[in-house]
């Protein structure tokens, strides 16, 4: 056990989780966006808030951008601001779903002019990557159909392949293309990238620097997500996670809130394949919106939840597990997993943080700083950060 504990501590010390800039702005549902005092007024303030999460957890050193939600005049200045705050810019997310031109889709649109516009937007995102030092271009397309017969399913896949190839050709040698899938919404009948298989087929056709993004909220209820993880890892094409929780649809709630056991099972697959190590190429990102809860504490809680699931996965006695599996000991094997899952790892993580000069309880430590009161007093007139900025 001591060996496992030490190994777990060493691995946890290296783990990083990327934060989405949009988690710090106001967000909501189509029914209501509640505003929060002190919400960031621009991308610079979003980065500053994200840096608070890193300052208290030591595990969140990157911030993803979403373009054009995070539009600024000078991206070099934004990257320099991030550096001053002790973080870096992570993935750049394209956004080809909020312009009237994209009513019938972006890269899959039947109109060649609109497809070209969508490609040009991605090339502009690549330019933002150059200016910020980002190496991951993350693509999620809202493309799809509401009615059978609305457009030709196969032709749309051909257009998609062509558009993605143009975007891929625009990447620098050190950049990756990450393609996210989602089974429905906003399209209700057919989505053009609905599942991991479709995303993987396009990535394989594009080349080695194209990988799949698995957003935990983008599956039909009951989907065995850890199986998808295992399969993508086998293919060497799990590029990133968008972590969040769902009860019903794409809820974007705090990761580990709805189903901590599922998060553990996912992380157990990751650890079993050694993919938790920074060299694995898997970018562990959050994709969440905090509609009614405070945003910075919501992100701190999320980071801690991922750390707890990872710690439990690292405590799985892999030797005992393999032995039980090969000897056909069904309940023994299950028991090994459950032992790890049922371990309280909060003390272990607190010890780790203390050894790194961090607060044992990042959530309480942040609350004690008074930062939220300060920004509420200083920032008047916040910007809405997502879904219609
Ligand atoms: C789509 C999605 C995708 C977007 C984000 C804001 O549902 O998961 O990752 O970029 O939400
Ligand atoms: Mn996502
Ligand atoms: Mn989503």
Write the topology of this structure.
Elements lengths: L1 H13 L3 E3 L22 H15 L4 E5 L8 H10 L3 E6 L18 H21 L3 E4 L4 E2 L7 H17 L6 E5 L9 E2 L4 H11 L3 E6 L9 H10 L3 E6 L16 H13 L10 E4 L8 H20 L3 H9 L3 H12 L4 H10 L6 H8 L1 H8 L11
Parallel strand pairs: 1-2, 2-3, 3-4, 4-6, 6-8, 8-9, 9-10
Antiparallel strand pairs: 5-7
Helix pairs in contact: 1-9, 2-9, 2-13, 4-5, 7-8, 8-9, 9-13, 10-11
The site of one manganese (II) ion (MN) has 5 residues, from loops.
Describe this structure in words.
The chain has one domain: Alpha-Beta Barrel (TIM Barrel). The protein has 389 residues and is an alpha/beta fold. Helix 1 packs antiparallel against helix 9 (295-314), helix 2 (43-57) packs across helix 9 (295-314) and helix 2 crosses helix 13. The chain contains 14 helices and 10 strands. The strands form 2 sheets. An 8-stranded parallel β-sheet has the order 1-2-3-4-6-8-9-10. A two-stranded antiparallel ribbon has the order 5-7. Bound molecules: 6-deoxy-beta-L-fructofuranose (LRH) and manganese (II) ion (2 copies). Residues 215, 217-218, 250, 287 line the site of one manganese (II) ion. GO terms for molecular function: L-rhamnose isomerase activity; metal ion binding. This is L-rhamnose isomerase. It is an enzyme of class 5 (isomerase). Its EC number is 5.3.1.14.
Search tags:
alpha/beta, binds 6-deoxy-beta-L-fructofuranose, 46% helix, Xyl_isomerase-like_sf, eight-stranded parallel β-sheet, 389 residues, globular, TIM Barrel, binds manganese (II) ion, two-stranded antiparallel sheet
Structure, briefly:
By secondary structure, this protein is of the alpha/beta class. Helices cover 46% and strands 11% of the residues.
């Amino acid at each position: 056990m001591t060996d496992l504990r030490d190994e777990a501590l060493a691995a946890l010390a290296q783990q990083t989780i990327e934060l989405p800039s949009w988690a710090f702005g106001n967000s909501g549902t189509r029914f209501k966006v509640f505003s929060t005092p002190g919400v960031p007024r621009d991308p610079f303030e979003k980065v500053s808030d994200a840096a608070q999460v890193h300052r208290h957890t030591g595990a969140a050193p990157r911030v993803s951008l979403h373009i054009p939600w995070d539009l600024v005049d000078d991206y070099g200045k934004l990257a320099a601001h991030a550096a001053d705050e002790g973080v870096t810019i992570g993935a750049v997310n394209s956004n080809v779903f909020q312009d009237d031109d994209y009513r019938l889709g972006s890269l899959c649109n039947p109109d060649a002019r609109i497809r070209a516009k969508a490609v040009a937007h991605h090339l502009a995102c690549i330019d933002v990557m150059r200016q910020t030092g980002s190496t991951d271009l993350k693509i999620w397309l809202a493309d799809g159909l509401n009615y059978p017969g609305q457009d030709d399913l196969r032709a749309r896949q051909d257009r998609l392949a062509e558009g993605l190839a143009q975007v891929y050709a625009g990447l620098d040698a050190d950049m990756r293309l990450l393609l996210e899938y989602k089974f429905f919404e906003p399209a209700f009948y057919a989505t053009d990238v609905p599942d991991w298989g479709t995303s993987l087929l396009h990535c394989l056709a594009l080349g080695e620097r194209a990988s799949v993004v698995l957003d935990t909220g983008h599956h039909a209820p009951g989907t065995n997500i850890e199986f998808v993880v295992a399969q993508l890892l086998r293919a060497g094409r799990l590029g990133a996670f968008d972590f969040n929780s769902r009860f019903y649809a794409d809820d974007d709630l705090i990761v580990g809130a709805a189903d901590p056991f599922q998060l553990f099972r996912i992380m157990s697959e990751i650890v079993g394949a050694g993919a938790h190590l920074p060299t694995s190429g898997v970018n562990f990102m959050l994709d969440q919106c905090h509609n009614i809860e405070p945003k910075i504490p919501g992100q701190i809680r999320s980071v801690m939840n991922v750390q707890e699931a990872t710690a439990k996965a690292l405590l799985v006695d892999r030797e005992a597990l393999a032995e039980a599996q090969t000897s056909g000991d069904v309940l023994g094997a299950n028991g090994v997993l459950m032992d790890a899952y049922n371990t309280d790892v909060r003390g272990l993580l607190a010890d780790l943080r203390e050894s790194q000069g961090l607060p044992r309880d990042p959530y309480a430590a942040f609350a004690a700083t008074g930062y939220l009161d300060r920004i509420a007093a200083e920032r008047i007139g916040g910007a809405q950060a997502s879904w219609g900025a």
